[in-house]
Design goal:
The protein has 91 residues and is of the alpha+beta class. Helices cover 23% and strands 41% of the residues. The strands form two sheets. The protein has a five-stranded antiparallel beta sheet with strand order 3-2-1-5-4. The chain has a three-stranded antiparallel beta sheet with strand order 6-7-8, with no helix packed on it. Strand 7 and strand 8 form a beta hairpin. The longest helix has 14 residues.
């Protein structure tokens, strides 16, 4: 179920789905995974990372990092504006 997904990262030949309890390696590209996820619930924050929007606890625009509690993930410059726009739509 997608609600358990915290973030997904790309690892060349496969993607890793991170949940609160486990990691799952799947042989599917990040692009194809993104297409299968419900719109509005996930946002791509870097060429190699997708995060569940509701779990974002902080965004540091100085260091270009997105936080999900104590986990810091990179924020790509090309994805920054889309992330901010999507979060503003949720307010």
């Amino acid at each position: 179920n997608f609600i358990h997904i915290r973030w997904i990262n790309d690892n060349v030949n496969y993607s890793t789905i991170h949940t609160a309890k486990k990691k799952h390696a799947v042989k599917i590209s990040l692009t194809k995974l993104r297409q299968r996820l419900p719109m509005g619930h996930f946002v791509q924050v870097h060429r190699s990372y997708i995060v569940q929007t509701e779990l974002i606890t902080n965004i540091d625009l100085t260091t270009l990092e997105v936080y999900l509690d104590d986990v810091a993930l990179p924020l790509g410059r090309t994805y920054k504006d889309d992330l901010i726009n999507q979060l503003n739509l949720l307010q």
